[in-house]
Design goal:
Helices cover about 25% and strands about 20% of the residues. With about 325 residues, it is of the alpha/beta class. The longest helix is centred in the C-terminal third of the chain and has 14 residues. The two termini are about 35 Å apart.
Length: about 325
């Protein structure tokens, strides 16, 4: 647990360490790679016990600093684990202490991120009864399958901020209305939401109920490239839905037209051996964007930067303090 270089947080807090791979985003898990090197816990995966950490006291230090500065600080919870992990080695007391820490550190906003949002009501029943106003809840969405699966579970949680971490973004996402989730036709507001529509049929897009979207490419030795159009589509969907958009990074790969690469950098024999073509066609959610092929170059996270079409997107949400009537059923 320490100060972090993660662009959208000030600190990271791991109440325990360890996890099990679940979906394509986990294929080249940075936490597992770091654990293999640093030996924080014995092994990784379903047969490895999670390891309890002993650094809770730093939370009080950060809370006091935030109070003295008059600036709320964001704490990313479980960068080396998953708060929705239901592994048998996780003592329920660890979760109770996490909830107590969140409730006591009133000057910190705790950003809980999980790939298992369906587990949260069972694992944290006291939070579901009275959700802390300083606990944000997010889920990882790397492809359309996981968007369709995880977002409906996320919006059942009455957090003041519900967010998506689309990193690594592995394909285009359509956060509009998914027909396959409602085979009997559109839901009605009176059966799922209270929004003053008088019970008229409503097609709910997946982005409904989402307060913030973070997007980023993959970093690390085995990083996969992300097509620029996939980022642009998310940016445009956020703009249309008035959802803050945070572009975290390109990651290891970036397009050649990217200004920080094309200016003052010549293509050498080495760089041409570190490129890949990636294709995109059509549009997503009715938002047209540039189709066709892009040549992506592996230049490293530091050089690729975090500007999208020359713009740094640093959108942040405004917490909704009372969501008691805005929870999907």
């Amino acid at each position: 647990m320490a100060e972090t270089k993660i662009e959208w947080a000030h600190f990271t807090h791991n109440p325990w360490i360890g996890c099990t791979k679940l979906s394509p985003a986990c294929d080249f898990c940075y936490a597992e790679t770091q654990n293999n090197h640093r030996k924080w816990s014995v092994g990784w995966g379903p047969h490895a016990p999670r390891k309890r950490t002993k650094t809770r006291s730093l939370l009080r230090v950060w809370d006091n600093v935030a109070a003295d500065q008059g600036i709320r600080k964001r704490v990313f919870v479980a960068s080396l684990a998953d708060v929705g992990d239901n592994h048998r080695s996780i003592d329920p007391e660890w979760r109770r202490q996490l909830v107590d820490d969140i409730r006591q550190c009133r000057n910190l906003d705790f950003l809980l991120l999980t790939k298992r949002p369906q587990n949260m009501p069972k694992l944290y029943p006291d939070m579901m009864e009275e959700w802390p106003s300083n606990a944000w809840m997010g889920t990882t969405v790397e492809n359309q399958v996981e968007a369709n699966r995880r977002i409906p579970d996320l919006i059942k949680i009455p957090a003041p901020v519900r967010f998506l971490s689309c990193e690594p973004l592995l394909e285009e996402l359509d956060l509009g209305y998914p027909d396959e989730l409602f085979p009997d036709g559109p839901a009605r507001c009176c059966s799922g939401f209270e929004c003053g529509c008088m019970g008229q049929p409503i097609d709910y897009p997946l982005i409904y109920g989402i307060d913030w979207i973070i997007a980023g490419g993959e970093s690390g030795r085995n990083a996969r490239p992300t097509h620029p159009g996939w980022f642009r589509s998310l940016r445009d969907q956020c703009s249309s839905a008035n959802v803050p958009f945070f572009f975290k990074q390109w990651g290891e790969w970036a397009p050649w037209h990217h200004s920080s690469l094309s200016q003052g950098m010549e293509l050498s024999a080495e760089s041409t051996n570190r490129r890949v073509n990636i294709s995109l066609s059509g549009s997503v959610g009715g938002n047209p964007h540039i189709p066709g092929d892009y040549t992506m170059y592996r230049v490293g996270k530091a050089r690729s930067g975090r500007t999208l079409d020359g713009v740094v997107h640093d959108g942040y949400p405004v917490p909704k303090l009372d969501r008691s009537k805005w929870v999907a059923t």
